[in-house]
UniProtKB/TrEMBL annotation:
Cofactor: Zn(2+)
Protein name: Peptidase M14 domain-containing protein
Signal peptide annotation: 1-26
All residue ranges annotated as the Peptidase M14 domain in the record: 50-372
GO cellular component: extracellular space
Length: 461
């Protein structure tokens, strides 16, 4: 009897557990999948007649670079693990190099007076809007330029904007940092996929608190950091560029919420309250950028705005290791996660809303660029003042040196003079015949010479 009761109880318990689990899954079918990158039934998918996929992105960038050779240079040599180009473009006014017959645009870094900004987009496969936003930016920058065969009447505002940016900015954009991940998401329609072809989250793969609790060693996890720092070949383009050029600013573009993060985001910084030395300036720029959009953007320390830390991020590395003065992670779109969200809708607007979203994001770039330009101009002006002071100092050193020469000469002449006087005094004092003939005259001469001798100007040094 007891045995039968126990079996009944066990069966009931088992049934309850099974039913509860089904119930939980029914109530929240995605709860069990939080944090992983398995596909989910999406609320909506991208319409690739409106969104760019990797192929059309590449075609568009190649066309832009072909149309505006004097302003956009494309480098296809940086590739992903599977050999897909990451579409690195450099945007500035190259015409002065052309005039000088300098053909190696990439190695020439003569434009130190321009703002050097590096933008990294397409880091996370499921976030399409960062790449759309840089395409929108490039389209606007080139909107005021004419290419051969272009019959458009030139709009003055567009012309002025294009030339303003191209004159004062040296802009590097990695249009698609993670092409393999993007192509995987497009092919499988798994818009929860975030990592590379091996599932590594590039934004946890950098050598800044790598391996900390704000990342994962689990390959199934969306924050999988990889076997070691920089394990992914996709990192190379960022490492190379930041070792070759001295950037004024770095923007790492993402989506999911509307936040602008200043460093740092890692668990150690959160623990010890670490901040960059120029935190006030960084927050000021973040504030200007956040306020420029019609949408509400929040800005601040990454570890203050989020309830999680992130270790091994690109923007922390650029701030902490590469010492780039302004290094932001910018979340361009979204309202944060909640139980109704799937994946694509968490990170990207519906295709019909894409244009409006891009128009609300665009002022953030413009505000960032114009503020950085003003800072650079101010710094250059200060540098001119500094150079002028340096020239004055050099001149004063020259004067000093000339004066020293003159003083040496005076000293030499003084010595010669003293020597002569001493001789005169000596001969006068020994000239007993003259003394005998006119003793008053000899005293007068002695006194006069002694006065001259002792009343020479005081030394300068
Ligand atoms: Zn992201």
């Amino acid at each position: 009897m007891i045995l039968i009761q126990s079996i009944r109880s066990s069966i009931l318990l088992l049934l309850t557990i099974v039913l509860l689990k089904i119930d939980v899954k029914g109530f929240h079918p995605y709860l069990a999948e939080c944090g992983d990158v398995k596909p989910r039934q999406e609320l909506y998918y991208p319409d690739y007649n409106i969104y760019h996929n990797y192929k059309t992105t590449k075609e568009l960038i190649i066309t832009l670079a072909d149309n505006f050779k004097d302003y956009i240079r494309l480098d296809l040599s940086y590739v992903s693990r599977l050999g897909e180009p990451q579409l690195l473009v450099r945007v500035t006014n190259f015409t002065h190099l052309k005039k000088q017959n300098i053909t190696n645009y990439w190695r020439n870094d003569s434009s130190k007076k321009r703002v050097k900004l590096l933008i990294s987009s397409g880091e996370h496969a499921r976030e399409l809007i960062p790449t759309e936003s840089v395409i929108f930016l490039l389209t606007n920058i080139t909107n005021g330029l004419k290419h051969s065969g272009d019959k458009r009447p030139m709009d003055n505002a567009a012309y002025r904007f294009s030339h303003y940016i191209l004159t004062y900015v040296d802009l590097f954009i990695i249009v698609m940092l993670n092409p393999d991940g993007r192509k995987y998401a497009e092919r499988t329609r798994n818009y929860c996929w975030r990592g590379t072809s091996t599932g590594v989250d590039l934004n946890r793969n950098f050598e800044w608190q790598f391996g900390g609790s704000g990342s994962s060693s689990n390959k199934e996890d969306e924050e999988y950091r990889g076997p070691h720092s920089f394990s992914e070949p996709e990192c190379n383009v960022l490492l190379d560029l930041t070792s070759q050029y001295e950037f004024d600013a770095f923007f790492s573009l993402h989506a999911g919420i509307k936040h602008i993060y200043v460093p740092y985001s890692d668990s150690m910084s959160q623990k010890i309250g670490r901040k960059p030395a120029n935190i006030k300036e960084q927050l000021k720029l973040a504030s200007i950028m956040a306020k420029s959009s019609a949408s509400k953007f929040t800005y601040g320390h990454a570890y203050d705005l989020n309830d999680y830390a992130a270790d091994g991020t690109v923007f922390d590395y650029m701030a902490g290791k590469r010492n780039i003065p302004f290094s932001f992670a910018i979340e361009l779109w979204g309202n944060g996660d909640n139980s109704n969200k799937r994946c694509f809708d968490l990170f990207n607007p519906h295709s019909q809303d894409l244009k409006a979203a891009l128009e609300s994001i665009y002022p953030i770039f413009v505000a960032g660029l114009t503020s950085l330009i003003q800072k650079k101009l101010q710094r250059n002006q200060n540098k001119h003042l500094f150079d002028a002071k340096l020239n004055l100092y050099d001149n004063s050193l020259q004067v000093h040196s000339q004066m020293s020469g003159m003083i040496d000469q005076v000293n030499q002449e003084e010595q010669n003079f003293n020597f002569k006087i001493k001789n005169v005094l000596l001969s006068a004092s020994s000239n007993t015949a003259l003394e005998r003939k006119n003793p008053d005259f000899v005293d007068w001469v002695k006194l006069g010479l002694a006065k001259i001798y002792y009343c020479l100007p005081a030394k300068f040094f």
